Amino acid sequence: MIPRKLILDVDTGTDDAVAIMLAALHPALDLVGVTVVNGNLPVETCTDNTLRVLDHVGRSDVPVFEGADRPLVRTDFPIPRGSGEQGARYHGETLPIPATRRRKERSTAVEFLVETYRAATEPITLVPVGTLTNIAAALAAEPRLASLVPEVVIMGGGHEIGNVTPAAEFNIWGDPEAAARVLGAGFPKVTLVLLDATHKALVSYSDCERLAALGTPAGMATSEIVRFRIDTHEKWQKMPIAGTAPVHDALCVAFLVDRGILATRRLNVVVETAGTYTLGRTVIDVHRRSGREPNADVAFDADARRFVDLLAETFARSGE
Ligand code: BDR
Ligand code: CA
Question: Which ligand is in closest contact with the Cα of 225?
Answer without folding.
Answer: 1
